[in-house]
Specification:
By secondary structure, this protein is mainly beta. The chain is about 5% helix and about 55% strand. It is globular and about 80 Å long. It has a 22-stranded antiparallel barrel. A hairpin with a 4-residue loop joins strand 2 and strand 3.
Length: about 800
């Protein structure tokens, strides 16, 4: 404990020393300039905002377009210049002396330039009245190196469902898997997400902002966005001439994880004005993770990802090509694969695995290998005569998953080839066409769109039984969304209609006769909501929406061992579509030293599908596995999210987050299984900002309390829910001057007291504990290759 906390002490001392040293230096630099309009449109310049993102400091320009920002510390900042109906300017500048910068606003849609602004920004292509939360800036930086599921647990109302220490997927208000839609750089992420062990095939380093929409968002994003949508958004490509970038380095003691992610971007210069590019890549390597009292054997992972973007944009038209590739190899905890039925029952009772492990970076069977490829191309054009904006997008995705059982083949020649026991190859094509129509009476904005999607899945492998059959499907949808602003209100409504067609290719194991069961589903979706801003301190939103999704192939046809989940699963071909009716509301209140938000929701499901544990495990030649069957019931979800931040004694703040969800199985009039326990998350933080050359020093301590999940039917699972737990954590960090720039350094410690615990939503809680103490060191270094700076 003493040795491991040296990193935390060094970071605290280093940041504090430089902060105290710099306290006498004042931050008195000035940024000023003038905002102009590209086509001489008549706009209200005193509604143009100029903001320094890192400092959360902004001003309105005066009536002629001049602006002035004072009391700025030397450093590298992101500037945002915004005016409704014009493209947001998002650029990075270094300020080491009093600086003058002029900006040129380019119309987004010429017909929107005269829309009356009343303090709320209406964007036709985004959901306005849904309850949502954004993770960005320092809050996002503090999660670097974690999986997407773990990163989002810092947001109130979110959790993760896990399969061991390295596989995690997001949970929103108790809903997960195919009910949560992930949108990666504007494209629906289409991987093999139907299993609890199938984590999103996404590198979180690509995003500078992650927005979570809580509740149905099917109108804009697709009929199956029942539980919510997670939007991963990279920052806008560089507009100004030059080349810059960023390097993120992460090290973690638990699993001895090392991660490095780099990004470089630039423009083509004056000869090809409007052409921008970006390259990004990430490497991760981890060995066996460690619980409080023992190593978790065969839990290492390796990951390498990269992406490239090329964009050409001019006033009125432009396009983009984006390519990304995600590769990972993940070890599955060896304690989860059991030989005999008695061994399995004994494993359920043990507090530690029967076979002890040591640390190692190498791992073998069982494991999974996943590769995901995405290619996106889009184009937009502002139509003539003020007829709005047309955007077309096409995306190709290929997801390959290989799962390897714990045992190798008895045939030596086959064993040497090391073929996977399960091999899935999913190919997805999507096409979208959206028209943002001209503003109607300067008050109504909206979009009309068409969507098309098709999947084709083929599988092979050496497994003696088929988990899912090969299949193809097609889907299409059409939607309309309209938004109306009046006084302090924004009203939003939408309608969507979708059709889905599925054909599977099953093989009778007895007669070897192929069958081709075919399904057709179609349904409509509606959404209505309103947001109200009383003043600068109080606002609220209310939303009602319906959503639906057809049963997935695995839910219909599963019949075999799911290797990486260490389970035997059964489908049900009689399952019908699942439909949800959701009502949610949220109220926000903020003053100079206090911010609070409370949200409530009620979500009724007709024919909710879930994986129900059977009463008796199954014994096979590959081992003994818990068995599950996909089951359909009526269900009711309801809950509360509450969070507040209270700043006191000038530099201290208390951050509190509470998430409570209740879910009933209405078919049996009892509780529903696999629902998150209550979470109470509280942080005390001390912060100093802009003191001389040192910026954003902070140190904090966190307490997370999760009581036992007692709201489950008796004897509804193989193992009763584990006891509740209380975890402590601490972190410290700051921005330090370096080579005429700043780099960010932080250290965090999770499970500070090294508590042995098991989380109810971890599928492997049957066999192993969750992670013990983990110390993480994060360094973010900005890169600037330009010869000239603004």
């Amino acid at each position: 404990m003493h040795n491991k906390n040296i990193l935390l002490f060094i970071t605290f001392f280093f940041c504090a020393f430089h902060t105290i040293k710099a306290q006498k230096q004042s931050c008195n630099l000035i940024l000023s300039g003038h905002v102009k309009v590209a086509d001489s449109s008549a706009i209200s310049f005193n509604l143009v905002t100029v903001t320094i993102a890192q400092l959360k400091k902004g001003v309105l320009a005066d009536s002629t377009g001049n602006y002035l920002l004072q009391n700025i510390c030397p450093g590298r900042y992101t500037l945002e210049v915004k005016y409704i109906g014009f493209k947001t300017i998002d650029t990075t500048v270094r300020i080491n002396k009093n600086t003058a910068l002029d900006f040129l606003l380019v119309p987004e849609n010429k017909q929107l330039a005269n829309v009356t602004v009343t303090g709320q920004l209406i964007e036709a292509n985004k959901v306005t009245t849904a309850v949502k939360t954004t993770l960005s800036g320092q809050a996002l930086d503090e999660t670097r190196g974690l999986s997407l599921g773990e990163s989002l647990k810092s947001i109130t109302g979110l959790n993760s469902i896990q399969t061991g220490p390295s596989i995690s997927k997001p949970v929103i208000h108790g809903l997960y898997s195919n009910r949560i839609l992930i949108v990666n750089n504007g494209i629906r992420q289409e991987g093999q997400t139907w299993g609890n062990d199938h984590a999103p095939e996404i590198d979180p380093f690509i995003a500078t902002k992650i927005t979570v929409i809580k509740g149905p968002a099917s109108i804009m994003y697709g009929s199956d966005a029942i539980g919510g949508v997670i939007l991963l958004e990279p920052k806008d490509l560089r507009k100004m001439q030059g080349i810059d970038g960023e390097l993120n380095l992460v090290g973690m003691t638990n699993g001895r994880v090392g991660a490095a992610s780099g990004m470089v971007e630039g423009t083509a210069g004056k000869k090809l004005e409007g052409l921008s590019w970006r390259l990004q890549g990430t490497l991760k390597d981890a060995g066996n993770a460690q619980a409080a009292n023992y190593y978790l054997g065969n839990t290492g992972f390796k990951e390498d990802d990269y992406s490239a973007t090329l964009q050409y944009a001019k006033p009125g038209y432009g396009g983009e090509v984006y390519y990304s590739r995600f590769d990972t190899k993940i070890g599955i905890a060896s304690a989860s694969h059991i030989g005999t039925l008695q061994d399995l029952y004994d494993a359920f009772k043990r507090s530690e695995p029967a076979v002890k492990s040591d640390f190692s970076y190498s791992f073998g069977r069982p494991y999974q290998m996943v590769n995901h490829t995405l290619l996106k191309a889009n184009w937009f054009v502002d139509l003539k005569n003020g007829m709005g904006k047309l955007t077309a997008t096409y995306a190709y995705q290929r997801d390959i998953r290989k799962e390897y059982d714990a045992d190798v083949s008895f045939n030596d020649s086959i064993a040497r080839l090391n073929p996977p026991d399960l091999y899935f190859n999913l190919v997805t094509n999507t096409a979208d066409l959206t028209w943002q129509h001209p503003a109607i009476n300067k008050k109504i904005v909206g979009s009309i769109g068409l969507n098309f999607i098709t999947h084709g899945n083929s599988q092979q492998g050496t497994g003696y039984s088929e988990l899912i059959p090969n299949f193809i499907d097609y889907g299409g949808g059409a939607f309309i969304v309209e938004k109306y602003e009046v006084s302090k209100w924004i009203f939003e409504g939408g309608f969507r209609y979708d059709y889905r067609w599925l054909r599977a290719f099953t093989l009778d194991p007895t007669t070897l006769v192929e069958k081709k069961p075919t399904y057709n589903w179609h349904n409509s979706t509606v959404n209505a909501g309103a947001s109200y801003r009383m003043n600068d301190h109080f606002s609220g939103v209310v939303n009602f929406g319906t959503a639906w999704r057809p049963p997935q192939v695995i839910e219909l046809f599963a019949n075999g061992i799911h290797q990486s989940a260490a389970s035997f699963e059964h489908g049900d071909t009689s399952l019908t579509l699942e439909k949800a009716y959701n009502t949610s509301a949220s109220v926000k209140y903020n003053t100079n030293n206090f911010e609070a938000e409370i949200g409530v929701y009620v979500n009724y499901f007709n024919h909710y599908i879930y994986l129900k544990p059977d009463s008796v495990p199954v014994e096979t030649i590959q081992g003994t596995f818990p068995t599950y069957t996909y089951t359909q019931v009526n269900a009711l979800f309801k809950g509360i999210d509450f969070n507040f931040t209270y700043s006191f004694l000038k530099h201290f703040s208390l951050i509190s987050k509470t998430s409570i969800v209740r879910a009933r199985n209405l078919t049996i009039n009892d509780w529903l299984i696999n629902i998150p326990a209550d979470r109470f998350d509280n942080t005390l933080k001390y912060q100093l900002k802009g003191w001389g050359k040192i910026k954003d020093f902070y140190i904090g301590i966190n307490n997370l309390a999760v009581p036992k999940q007692t709201r489950v039917p008796p004897k509804s699972d193989y193992v009763s829910p584990p006891p509740g737990y209380v975890l402590w954590a601490a972190d410290a960090g700051c921005s330090i001057p370096w080579a005429n720039n700043y780099f960010d350094v932080s250290v965090s410690v999770t499970n500070l007291t090294n508590v042995a615990y098991r989380d109810y939503l971890n599928r492997f809680r049957y066999f192993i504990d969750d992670l013990g103490r983990n110390i993480s060191l994060r360094i973010k270094v900005p890169l600037d290759f330009s010869k000239h700076h603004s």
